[in-house]
Structure to design on (222 residues):
């Protein structure tokens, strides 16, 4: 059965600002029909990278948090650590990033929980017997939640064209170990004929897996 999709436009007036329209939208979509009473509700979100301005404003998350609390739920904002090195690759830096971008308990009305723990090692293997993945390693706080709500922006992606709710959940809920499995089938390669031996890839490889051999880049996949 096809999903119902609800839209709203961005036109506003003093009595109908964007936060008001967001609440009206999700209530029309049926959030009130979900039994949140006493249930841990993971609100899956992307907190944004340092220097990135495209993440959702915490004001939007605060609306969803308030509605879920009104319906008796126990919401928390969450994401898993990243596989690549950066400001979201461990829980300490990840939470600092979230706070710098305004995701504080005072602003959104709830806590930020990094779902796969300090180093990305807290996960639950969820058996699905899929064609490519038999048991994805999902961040423990997400796997153990009673309900998941995805709030996300749409962004360009070099492999899928667009990333939205499916990527926010399908890849974003994977722990560091889970993301490593997801990416293991897609490996970078060196076009040796085009390689000029500039060594930029050597300097920028977060895993220190690239070296120059006879002025050509070589990747150590191990």
């Amino acid at each position: 059965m096809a999903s119902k999709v609800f839209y709203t436009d961005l036109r506003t007036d003093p009595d109908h600002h964007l936060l008001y329209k967001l609440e009206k939208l999700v209530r029309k979509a049926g959030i009130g029909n979900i039994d949140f009473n006493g249930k841990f509700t993971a609100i899956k979100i992307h907190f944004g990278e340092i220097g990135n301005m495209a993440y959702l404003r915490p004001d939007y998350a605060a609306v969803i948090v308030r509605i879920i609390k009104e319906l008796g739920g126990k919401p928390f904002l969450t994401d898993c650590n990243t596989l690549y090195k950066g400001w979201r690759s461990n829980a300490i830096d990840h939470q600092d990033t979230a706070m710098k971008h305004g995701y504080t308990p005072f602003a959104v009305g709830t806590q930020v929980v990094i779902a796969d723990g300090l180093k990305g090692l807290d996960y639950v293997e969820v058996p699905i017997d899929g064609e490519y993945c038999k048991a994805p390693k999902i961040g423990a706080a997400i796997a153990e939640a009673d309900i998941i709500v995805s709030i996300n922006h749409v962004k360009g992606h070099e492999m899928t064209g667009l990333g939205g709710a499916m990527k926010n959940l399908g890849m974003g809920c994977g722990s560091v170990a889970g993301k490593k499995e997801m990416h293991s089938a897609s490996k970078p390669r060196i076009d040796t004929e085009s390689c000029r031996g500039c060594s930029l890839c050597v300097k920028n490889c977060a895993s220190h897996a690239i070296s120059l051999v006879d002025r050509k880049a070589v990747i150590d996949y191990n």
